[in-house]
Amino acid sequence: MKVREIKHGDAGRRGRLAPAVKASAPAWSARQARAMDGEAMLRAMLANCLAQIVPNAAGIARGSDDPEHVHQLRVGLRRLRSAARGMRPFAACLPSGWGSAILPVFEALGDVRDKHVRATTLAPRLREAGAPVAELDGPSEEDARRLRALVRGDGFQSVLRQMQSCTEPDEPTRGDAGSGMARLKRQLRRLTRQVTRAARRFDELSFARQHRARKRLKRLRYLAEFAAPAFDRDAVDAWMAKASRAQERLGRHIDLTLAAQRFASAARTDPGAGFAARWLRAKAEASTRKARKSLRRLRRARTFW
């Protein structure tokens, strides 16, 4: 799907919307992955990200209220940012100000996604525990309209078109063979050091540093997925399983902690929210230990690169 098609259609076509699109495995072979120069590697990574971003953006622009479209577009944009950041020395083709242009969409996606998760995952558990959950409503119609307007907006559309042009240059330059994978491997080693350093005393870190560790783990996993075709499949699968488990547990811990903070703030004017805050803090303490264990398992895992 071309970027120019995203804005076509309207909410009346909801019944014919395509399902959400997940990230696909990189299409390049092991030989290609090892031989690509940095610019060619980045172009291939961008094309892979856009193959996830464009159809999910189209679904939202045409009126979809499917939470999976929201989730997959957000993942696609996060993968795009990770790719551009990881391959920064080769990113001359990227449009100026692209990060600022996609930020409003990314933040709106996060707001809608967080409200949906709180309403469908956290609220039932709080109700079962007897806590008030009035604050955990799902995304509103206004939230959906705002997101749709941002996705349809000229700023976001223009950046996606320019990104797509970046993947199809008229005269691609030829850099040093293998420089793309060399850069990826350096980034993987650096992020691995940062993530495993956090694993040593994860439960003693400030929440801000725990959150930073989660973001770094996401970037590590996304870049590892781009590098994976160049390496042994069994080794890749073994490492990815541990990375996915650690990412899942860190995500659960961060969500519980943020919810606990939100209810603690509400308790200043709503005494009933105090029960929810205490319950969530207890769950967050348990999730800290689980996150630490999964990070330590990842630290002991053999990297495939």
Automatic annotation (TrEMBL):
Residues 35-305 form the CHAD domain. PROSITE patterns: CHAD. This is CHAD domain-containing protein.
